[in-house]
Design goal:
Helix content: 10-25%
Bound molecules: adenosine-5'-triphosphate, magnesium ion
CATH architecture of the largest domain: 3-Layer(aba) Sandwich
Oligomer: single chain
CATH topology of the largest domain: Rossmann fold
Number of helices: 10
Structural class: alpha+beta
Strand order of the largest sheet: 6-7-8-3-9-10
Number of domains: 2
Shape: elongated
Length: about 375
């Protein structure tokens, strides 16, 4: 296996579309890197550039430290697994996995050994004689993986390999691929627009928007410290809530509510007299109790029981944060935000306890955890990070 490096890579198409824009990213040997972002942000193009299926407009791509942009795809030694993994329908599992090896001139006995071994790892040994038509979706997906594995490539490139599977199988294959990747210690670039897949599978996750890398970090760091409004709204489900907050000497004001924020937020203090975006994740809102310091009044619009938790869709007093970044990040997500937005109220979601006993129409108070408040510059979208 080998490292893969994007060094200031640009890709423009003939019609002027800039699909990848100044992308610099280092994927370590053996690392599982996930590229995530909304539709059209350049994920597939980035993979195709590594595979040699597209030419770079500028920059350099290195595999194992060696520039590859002038090498034809066959000589780059990467294996790509697509969403539509076309297996040969008239060949059985064994023959499907053998095919690529034989055409690469690998000796028959050696090829068969590799296929047997991959079949064992993927739990396909019993199915070697079956044709694709006689396999389940997940089994077919494993054969497609097997075909990539037997090539013993420098790196695996996977483009939404699970998106054709039903939800349950996807969860199962997600775990399967993670396990396999660790077992093989295989450098992997995995593309998805599903942020749950990204968070659960990646050693690191690279979030892209409009061809540009926004942030690359381990999943927990992305969740805890998003660098801008786009990453903040893209990562997390349900998505982070946003409301405008006016910065004062002793805290921030949301609607009519003053919230004192912890001292020592000097960068935030520099925004005194101006509005910023306040972001709060649904899971960091609770029903306020007697001890709660920071409280925000809210009106309940809808409740949804999920079993272990309850989602309360509410409206809070304040002004909405309506920036391109937030709209774009949400456009791909499953989140439905209920409640109306105007100059005085903003829809939000709180993950409450099932026995919080709130009902539609209730006026409640939500408690905020002062350590879990995110602030962003309204114009640049950048996090106001201390
Ligand atoms: N051959 C092409 N010619 C012109 N534009 C292209 C071409 N291929 C892709 N694009 C454009 O480049 C941008 C990035 O496309 P890409 O397929 O990389 O996005 P993606 O992140 O993989 O999206 P999705 O999640 O929908 O698969 C899009 O605006 C797309 O329309
Ligand atoms: Mg794509």
């Amino acid at each position: 296996m080998a490292s893969v490096t994007f060094d200031r890579v640009d890709k423009s198409f003939g019609d002027g579309t800039r699909a990848v824009d100044a992308l610099s990213l280092d994927i370590a040997d053996g690392e599982f890197m996930v590229l995530v972002g909304p539709s059209g942000c350049g994920k597939t193009t980035a993979l195709r550039l590594v595979a040699g299926l597209e030419d770079l407009s500028a920059g350099e791509i290195r595999i194992g430290g060696r520039p590859v942009q002038d090498l034809p795809p066959r000589r780059r030694d990467v294996a790509m697994v697509f969403q539509n993994y076309a297996l040969y329908p008239h060949m059985n599992v064994f023959e499907n996995m053998m095919f690529g090896l034989r055409s690469r001139g690998i000796e028959k006995r050696k090829a068969a050994e590799r296929v047997d071994e991959a079949g064992h790892v993927l739990d396909l040994s019993e199915l070697m004689k079956r044709r694709p038509g006689q396999l389940s979706g997940g089994q077919r997906q494993r054969v497609a993986m097997g075909r990539a594995i037997v090539r013993e490539p420098h790196a695996f490139l996977m483009d939404e390999p699970l998106s054709n599977l039903d939800a349950k199988l996807r969860v199962q294959m997600r775990a399967e691929i993670s396990r396999l990747q660790r077992q093989l210690n295989a450098t992997t670039i995995y593309v998805t627009h599903d942020q749950v897949e990204a968070m659960t599978m990646g050693d690191r996750v690279a979030v892209m928007r409009r061809g540009m890398l926004q942030q690359c970090a381990p999943p927990q760091a992305l969740y805890d410290r998003p660098v801008n409004l786009f990453v903040a709204s893209f990562i997390g489900s349900p998505a982070m809530n946003f409301v405008q907050a006016d910065v004062h000497d002793d805290g921030v004001r949301v609607g009519d509510t003053m919230l004192s924020v912890p001292r020592g937020r000097e960068k935030l203090a520099a925004y005194r007299g101006r509005a910023v975006a306040l972001g709060i994740r649904p899971e960091h809102l609770r029903r306020a109790g007697t001890g709660s310091e920071l409280r925000l009044p809210a009106r309940v619009v809808l409740t949804e029981s999920l079993g272990p938790t309850m989602l309360a869709h509410v409206e809070v007093q304040g002004r909405a944060v309506v920036t391109d970044a937030v709209i774009e990040a949400m456009s791909d997500g499953p989140d439905v935000v209920l409640g109306r937005t105007d100059d005085t109220r903003v829809p939000a979601i709180a993950t409450l306890e099932p026995d919080d006993a709130v009902a539609v129409g209730d006026a409640i108070e939500l408690a905020l955890d002062p350590r879990r408040l995110h602030f962003f510059d309204l114009e640049s979208g950048e996090a106001i990070d201390e």
